[in-house]
């Protein structure tokens, strides 16, 4: 049993008490899985990250836990951990960083006050269990406010992507627990990502989003990098072209935690390379007393 320091950050923002909160344990070597899960449940943030001993210079294993389960990949924990490791002097901002997550290696590069990672898994797109009328019913909207067919997209963590026709529809959207249990739960993928395209040009755009997850869609996330990567991949593929795209994604406005995510997709000749970047700010530090340090090498 030994004490473990941790740090609290707000991610995809440069202002405290906005963006998405995150806890990171930068020296979690020897901590066993059950303890990690118990700690994540105790802190009760959307995600908590545990950083292991470096495999090589600038290469760290990470494990990401929600209060209920371990995730193979998540965006705001990746960006937040990268910022913290640089803040603590564990990596240098002028060198690449690799975070070894369950989904695979996430390569991070720093640019000014941004940290951005390239997704480890390629974009995968399939049909959603939702069609426009059911999506509208799920969200308490008119069918005319849902644009096109919802899809299920993933760069390591799947989301039902639903396009809406206005910011007003986005504001009013509220998942129905009954419709959720009938249409989302059976799909096995309990996350939906709503989006509205505010403005576009040939290669860049401004997008507003909301993400709901959990039992009945009752939890709203203020900033979701994994969902942003799925959306970027979907938009790039559905464009019907090969080139480079940039998006400025705003999320969390409706719940008072405004966030900004920078997403890009570049075609490398064979596939889309998707990158998610953002800022982060350290808002606090703490010490967890007497956390277990049993050996557990499972990843």
Explain what the structure shows.
The structure is a single chain. The protein has helices spanning 33-43, 75-87, 132-139, 167-172, 177-184, 225-238; strands spanning 2-11, 20-25, 48-51, 59-65, 70-71, 97-101, 104-111, 114-118, 124-127, 146-154, 158-164, 191-200, 204-213, 219-221, 244-251, 259-267, 272-278, 280-291. By secondary structure, the chain is of the alpha+beta class. The chain has two domains: 2-113 and 280-291, Diaminopimelate Epimerase, Chain A, domain 1 (Roll); 124-274, Diaminopimelate Epimerase, Chain A, domain 1, CATH 3.10.310.10. The protein has an 18-stranded mixed sheet that branches. It is globular, with a radius of gyration of 19 Å. Mean pLDDT is 94; it is low at 295-299.
């Amino acid at each position: 049993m030994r004490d473990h320091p941790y740090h609290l950050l707000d991610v995809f923002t440069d202002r405290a008490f906005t963006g998405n909160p995150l806890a990171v344990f930068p020296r979690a070597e020897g901590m066993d899985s059950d303890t990690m899960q118990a700690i994540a449940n105790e802190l009760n943030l959307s995600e908590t990250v545990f950083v292991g001993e470096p495999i090589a210079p600038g290469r760290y294993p990470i494990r990401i836990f929600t209060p209920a389960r371990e995730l193979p990949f998540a965006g705001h924990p990746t960006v937040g951990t990268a910022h913290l490791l640089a803040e603590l002097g564990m990596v240098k901002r002028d060198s690449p960083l690799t975070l070894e997550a369950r989904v695979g290696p996430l390569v991070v590069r720093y640019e000014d006050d941004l940290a951005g990672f390239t997704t480890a898994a390629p974009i995968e797109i399939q049909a959603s269990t939702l069609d426009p009328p059911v999506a509208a019913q799920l969200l308490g909207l008119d069918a005319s406010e849902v644009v096109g067919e919802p899809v299920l997209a993933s760069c390591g963590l799947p989301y039902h992507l639903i396009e809406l026709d206005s910011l007003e529809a986005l504001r009013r959207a509220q998942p129905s627990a009954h419709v959720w249990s009938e249409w989302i739960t059976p799909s096995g993928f309990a996350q939906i990502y709503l989006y509205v395209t505010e403005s576009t040009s040939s290669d860049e755009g401004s997008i507003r989003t909301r993400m709901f997850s959990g039992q009945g869609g009752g939890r709203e996330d203020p900033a979701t990098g994994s969902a942003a990567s799925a959306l970027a991949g979907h938009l790039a593929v559905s464009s019907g072209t090969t080139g480079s795209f940039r998006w400025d994604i705003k999320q969390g406005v409706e719940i008072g935690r405004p966030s900004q995510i920078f997403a890009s997709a570049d075609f490398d000749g064979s596939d889309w390379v998707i990158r998610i970047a953002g800022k982060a700010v350290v808002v606090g530090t703490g010490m967890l007393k007497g956390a277990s340090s049993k050996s557990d090498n499972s990843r």
